[in-house]
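Z., the sequence and structure:
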Amino acid sequence: MKNPALIIRETPRKFHRSRLVFRAAGKYNRAMGQEKTPPNLPQDLTLSHDGYFWETFQATRIAKAFLKKVLPPETIARLDLDGLVVENRHLSDDMFKETIADVVYRVPIRETRGHVNFFTVVEHKSFQDFLTIFQLWGYVYRVCRREFQAANERHGVKTGYRLPPVVAIILYHGESQFHGKTELSELFHPLPGLDDHLPRLRAILFDLNTIADDDPVLNDPEVPELKVVLTVLKTVFRRDVALKVRDVIREMKPDPASRRLMRTTLVYLINNAKHLRRSLDEVLGAFREIAGEKIMSTMAEIWKAEGEARGEARGEARGEARGEARGVVRILTTRFGRVPQAVSERVLAIGDLVVLDSLTELAVTCASLEEFKKALK
């Protein structure tokens, strides 16, 4: 089994409203039982832990707000965060094969007229991985190598040349506190007298398990989406995930950017938060407040796809229709509360996919349960 430091991950396409991205970055995680993917769901309805991290942390607003939380104030004062750029994550050199970091940020250093940049490599982990610091060492080396080669090609490297500062950050949100090493020297076999001579890359650890839910570090009033993303990552494995996510979502303002984040977040939670469905109605109301009723179309797509996948796995001829019918009932239940048994039985008895597609749309758009019942007759 390859370890995660050696897995070359597939680059996701850019996010847009109608399509989310599933990254196959979790092969090792899933093989080790750390990350599970729902069976055979379409790519636009599937999002892994790594996928959600990438989709959200490539946003420059979130990136800048996050760096302000984790870097020392004296460092932030020297950086021109308005010039932050999300770098190409493909890192390679002449000796080693290409690898892909989770996210790399480039930020100009003030008073250098843009000639010197600061780099941050952020590695996201949703499970315990003692090789994380070793993995980051490779990324840091590749960033330095790339910048050295670029400087040499521009004007030649002369005496006094200095490499750009590169900092490694581990963002961890597994089910327990992070136990891996955060300093590279701790991975080497110890020998007396060598402590000061071993590579000492020390990563900044941002372990969400060690941060209280109400800690100000999670919140930036000017960038409320940061609090949403960090809270979602922090609570995705917890039983109270629905309540915690509901509360932070209600702090958002309904705008196009928020609606995109809501759909991304909902797809991620449905795929990864095993305790979410016990209190799904608690959080769906908050999603609807920000993203509108169209968010229910996303739920309908997911439930339909799950029904199709389960039906195919069991080899049932009626699996697809049964899954879509159940999705219709669940939408009605979420929107209007208890659905009369007669209505549920009538919907579940329908085997015509064309009819069920129409009922799914109606369940999302109808103004009341009575309106749906009249159409059903």
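The first helix runs from residue 27 to 31. The CA atoms of residues 99 and 138 lie 9 Å apart.

Let me know what you think.
H.
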